[in-house]
Amino acid sequence: MNACSSALVRLKSREALIGIVGLGYVGLPLMLRYNMIGYRVLGIDVDASKVDALNAGLSYIEHIPGSAITQARASGFEATLDFSRAAQCDALILCVPTPLNKYREPDISFVVSTIDSIRPYLREGQVVSLESTTYPGTTEEELLPRIQDAGLTVGEQIFLVYSPEREDPGNPDFRTQTIPKVIGGHTSQCLAVGVALYEQAIDQVVPVSSTRAAEMTKLLENIHRAVNIGLVNEMKIVADRMGIDIFEVVDAAATKPFGFTAYYPGPGLGGHCIPIDPFYLTWKAREYGLHTRFIELSGEVNRAMPEYVVGKLMDGLNERGKALKGCRVLVLGIAYKKNVDDMRESPSVEIMELIEAKGGMVAYSDPHVLVFPKMREHCFDLHSEPLTAANLASFDAVLLATDHACFDYELIRQHSRLLVDSRGKYRQPEAHIVKA
Question: 311 in helix, strand or coil?
């Protein structure tokens, strides 16, 4: 039996050991899904605190209950810091971050360091799948030569695929199993093994012709959203100047049953995909002598939104005879979207930094993030403030940045001296409410 046939048998019989490298918002749900359907799963990560928590049956992601981790541990899941154990795995799924550097260029150092860490332990019969969002060509240009350097023929002895993650943390309507999975293989045999890997765990797999097509698919999905959010953010500014409620306009336009998809404005883009992915394509396009003007323009609009929101805050204070300098401002919600604890690329944090830079004193309230976490580029020594009538009234301004469902919006409305609303929660005009 050749390596391809052997891999197919082990994957389809669920005898394979699945290795998940990177146990964050993408890797952890994937681990739970494979574990649930009877696979043995090994988690590999460089963060000792995550490994220790998982092995103790604890979750560090709010929407994943600790009971799910405990159950996975009881049925054989184990987490480790030891990359040499990659040799035991029949499949290695890489779910590591791909941020931007300070020049807004792709930083694939986590991908490169991960493949370098497992390269000495690669063996015949394995399938390696990259799930991290990246520019078209990454799998072929970065993973392929490193695997070949290990002395293995890709497509014959070992199998390489790209299958972009599509997790939407906190979305109650979709879960790992029900989100269709796009898969591209380096060769036809790579694709066949990749399909066998994912079709066991995912209801629908969507094969495409190459890893590059799969990489481009993920970028298109998120660029589509980034461009449309940029459009509605720009229209918000125009509508505000004209005295029109953009949220009313979007709601009305959304009644059209064809040809329109509703996107709502906000204080800027957040999360692990939409603020980042467009720049992966614009960077790669320059290698081909192309300038992606449309994508870059939407990026400029979206990146300017935190400053726009802080400008509206300053306008509201000015109308009350106050300067932002010296004022106390409470930011409501610092996660990047409602009802999650995910802080990645959150525009709320940039708003907080802008307020501090202009001399304001900032605090925050977020029941999903009780202590401001350690972040690569941001640092606040703050805890979440309680939302009481007295505490709200003690601030010169309250700025709604993330519209968590658990906030008491009537309490906020009644007791805020100045309320800056960047999420359209307050539709009725009131003297103390500023729409941003």
Answer: helix
Q: Which of 89, 190, 273, 327 is catalytic?
A: 273
pLDDT tens digit sequence for 201-226: 999 999 999 999 999 999 999 999 99
Q: What is the DSSP letter of 140?
A: I
170: left (phi over 0), alpha (psi -120 to 50) or beta: left
> Residue 271: its pLDDT value, please?
76
Contact call for residues 343 and 173 (beta carbons, < 8 A): no
Domains of the chain (ranges; CATH) run 3-209 (3.40.50.720), 248-435 (3.40.50.720)
To which residue do tokens 């063996």 refer? 123
The CA distance from 299 to 230, in Å, is 7
Amino acid code (one letter) for 317: L
First to last CA, the chain: 64
- Residue 110: count of CB within 10 angstroms of its CB: 16
Angle of CA points 268, 271, 272, to nearest 5°: 135
Alpha helices in 168-326 (DSSP H): 188-199, 211-241, 246-253, 277-287, 293-303, 305-319
Three-state DSSP class for residue 269: coil
Residues 111 and 91: their CA atoms lie apart, in Å, by 16
Active site includes 273? yes
Report how far residue 361's alpha carbon sits from residue 211's, in angstroms, rounded to the nearest whole number. Answer: 48
Query: What pLDDT, in 10s, does the model give residues 108-164?
Result: 999 999 999 999 999 999 999 999 999 999 999 999 999 999 999 999 999 999 999
User: What does the alpha-carbon distance between residue 331 and residue 399 come to, in Å, rounded to a whole number?
Assistant: 5
Burial class (CB in 10 A: 0-12, 13-18, 19+), 146: middle
Alpha-carbon span 139 to 197, nearest angstrom: 18
Cα 79 to Cα 141: distance, rounded to the nearest angstrom: 29
Residue 317, both tokens? 């204070």
Residue type, 19: G
In 3D, which of 27, 43, 118, 37 has the Cα closest to residue 77? 43
Helix (H) or strand (E) holding 80: strand 78-80
pTM of the model: 0.91
